[in-house]
Amino acid sequence: MRLHINIAISTLTLLTSVGGVGAVAKEHKRAPEFLQSKYQALNREFFDNSLPKVRIEWADLTDYNYLGETYRENDGTFVVLVDRRTNLQDEVLQDTVFHEMCHVATWR
Fold first, then answer.
1. Could you tell me if 53 and 101 are in contact, meaning their C-beta atoms sit under 8 angstroms apart?
2. Tell me, what DSSP letter sits at residue 76?
3. CB-CB contact of 39 with 97 (8 Å)
4. pTM of the entire predicted model
5. Is 84:30 a contact under the CB 8 Å cutoff?
6. For strand 55-59 and strand 78-83, is the pairing parallel, antiparallel, or unpaired?
């Protein structure tokens, strides 16, 4: 009986630890630095590092029903906004960032 209790406690501890790691990874993906690293990786892979640095941020774009938005500030800086509610899957996020990068590439 004691062995079953110890196994149950060990299993629960392991599942809690694994779940916690997943939460940390998910939080990491919501960090502004994650978006910047995604932009840099795609710039390197598909644009031969030819795109300028941009300000890329998470935003709430649900009022506009946008996945992302790109605009240019008066000083020429590009700003890329990525909707935090609709870009939950890695593939969708990558497609959104890539799409916004195409705007940067054509507007330069």
1. no
2. S
3. yes
4. 0.73
5. yes
6. parallel
- pLDDT single digits (tens) 32-80: 899 999 999 999 999 999 999 999 999 999 999 999 999 999 999 999 9
Burial of 74 (0-12, 13-18, 19+ CB in 10 A): exposed
90 closest CA partner among 35, 48, 36, 43: 35
**Cβ-count burial 49-63 (b if 16+ within 10 Å, e if not):** eebeebebebbebee
Taking phi over 0 as left and psi of -120 to 50 as alpha, with beta for the rest, 17 belongs to alpha
Burial of 34 (0-12, 13-18, 19+ CB in 10 A): middle
- With vertex at residue 39, the alpha carbon angle to CA 30 and CA 105, rounded to the nearest 5 degrees, is 140
Q: How far apart are CA 30 and CA 34, in angstroms?
A: 7
